[in-house]
Design a protein that fits this description.
Number of helices: 18
Strand order of the largest sheet: 5-6-7-4-8-9-3-10
Strand content: 15-25%
Structural class: alpha/beta
Number of strands: 17
């Protein structure tokens, strides 16, 4: 969090481990954090701090330039939610064509780029290299960056990493955890260490289970194994439900031509449970044809709700909402022209998989939050995918039979975001599952609750000042 102090300074509040990372002078240093640990932001502050040395050139990298622009560069130069940019407007000059940011008043520069452009990186004379989401890079790229650290304007030439945990077989785990070297330092942070996180975000993380909780909440380097949806069971999840149980309908869409074009029709009941009524799943469908299919998809089911005698009752078509693969910009534009109510899906893969797992889990009343209709159109393809959906050797959902699973993720993430609580009942008993979550995970954390409070007090005493 940043607070204005004077016209030329701004004060920032850091978590204790962020503070240690920022001022660490080890040759190789890594901020290893779970979700919400403030990794990208502290890496940007580190880059700015190192670029304050006159004549220094700091490299700011991610695996691809596209991903860096969408994440790291936005935190550095743009407002991030309620937080201001790390570099305030007016404190730098930005040469977008050369990917150079020059800090005014100190003579240092930040070069940003993707590690997938090795020829450009090979010519750099860096004092420090900062890499966001470092688990994406390979060992050769890491040593290439080490070989660029030769700018003597920086008194402590470093490679600085920020990353989510990965598999224990990753070379970074071997280098920072297994090998003993006093020129390396690692700062490990869990989601529960960050007491700046909003309560609803902590509540969402508290629902993560198993290997997702271990890696993305507790920050453990653990391997993902087996099927992604190992909690799916045909006897539990393949059930008939009458169309009259549903209040509105959600259609989730994954674009394809060589791969199947997919659309799932989901009935949503008054408890926000999802039921897959049917699925379109076909290759070599032109976009124009697909739009016409989407326009009428599911009408035969929905029209069963229409009264036979229109004189007895007024009837309106229930709401149909379409959620599209966010990369299908052209298809979305065409659908909107046809009057369809369209939303771009949240395409966060692991969060989406967890959202589907949560839906498949048995709820308090003994029923799952996601079911499918037996013998309906496309359901056999859906069953084939969910019962074979697994992680590849890089611990990412295996490509191939994943198109219906992508469609399902889009729907589950839309429902999760849509039904998130946005108000508190007046006079209701206050419940703080985020605090309870911290207590429950205390045995798995590296610090006690008393140490966490002490760290909070130290943080308040160590508010640093930045000179523009």
């Amino acid at each position: 969090m940043i607070y204005p102090e004077t016209q030329n300074k701004q004060r920032i509040e850091l978590l204790p481990k962020q503070h240690k990372f920022l001022f660490c002078e080890a040759k190789e240093t890594m901020y290893d954090g779970a979700f919400g640990a403030g990794k990208t932001r502290i890496l940007c502050f580190k880059a700015v701090q190192k670029a304050m040395h006159e004549g220094n050139l700091v490299g700011l990298f991610r695996k691809t330039l596209t991903s860096l622009r969408a994440t790291t560069l936005r935190v550095l130069l743009e407002k991030d939610g309620t937080l201001p940019p790390v570099l305030p407007p007016g404190t730098y000059q930005h040469n977008k064509s050369e990917h150079i940011i020059k800090l005014l008043g100190c003579g240092g520069q930040i070069y940003y780029g993707g590690l997938d452009d090795p020829l450009r990186i090979a010519s750099l004379n860096l004092g420090t290299a900062c890499v966001d989401e470092a688990r994406e890079m390979d060992k050769d790229e890491y040593f290439m960056l080490l070989g660029r650290l030769r700018n003597n304007a920086d008194p402590f030439r470093q490679i600085c990493l920020a990353t989510n945990p990965d598999s224990p077989s990753h070379f970074l785990y071997e280098r920072f955890y297994r090998e003993k070297d006093n020129t390396r330092a690692v700062f490990k942070s869990k989601s529960t260490d960050n007491f700046f996180l909003p309560q609803d975000y902590l509540d969402m993380l508290a629902k993560f289970t198993g290997q997702y909780r271990d890696r993305f909440v507790l920050g453990k380097w653990v391997a993902f194994e087996g099927l992604i949806y190992d909690n799916f069971d045909r006897e539990t999840h393949v059930v008939h439900r009458d169309i009259s149980e549903f209040k509105w309908f959600l259609l989730s869409v994954d674009e394809g031509y060589t791969d199947p074009a997919v659309c799932g029709l989901w009935g949503i009941d008054s408890d926000n449970r999802m039921h897959l009524l049917k699925m379109f799943y076909q290759t070599k469908v032109l976009p124009s044809q697909f739009i016409q299919i989407l326009k009428s998809f599911g009408f035969s089911q929905i029209l069963q709700l229409k009264p036979h005698d229109m004189k007895l009752s007024k009837w309106e078509m229930p709401t149909r909402i379409f959620v599209f693969d966010p990369s299908a910009a052209g298809l979305i534009a065409d659908a909107q022209k046809e009057g369809l109510v369209c939303h771009k899906a949240d395409n966060a893969v692991f969060e989406g998989c967890q959202a589907v797992r949560d839906r498949l889990s048995i709820q308090a009343d003994g029923r799952p939050g996601l079911t499918v209709e037996p013998h309906a159109q496309g359901v056999s393809d859906w069953l084939t995918e969910i019962e074979s959906y697994h992680l590849d050797k890089n611990e990412k959902p295996a490509k191939g039979l994943d198109h219906a699973m992508d469609m399902t993720r889009y729907a589950a993430m839309y429902m999760k975001n849509m039904v998130a609580p946005r108000f508190t009942m007046l006079d209701a008993k206050k419940v703080e599952p985020g605090d309870r979550f911290r207590r429950e995970s205390q045995n798995e954390e590296e610090i006690t609750e008393e140490q966490l409070e002490a760290s909070r007090d130290r943080m308040l005493e160590t508010q640093g000042a930045w000179s523009n």
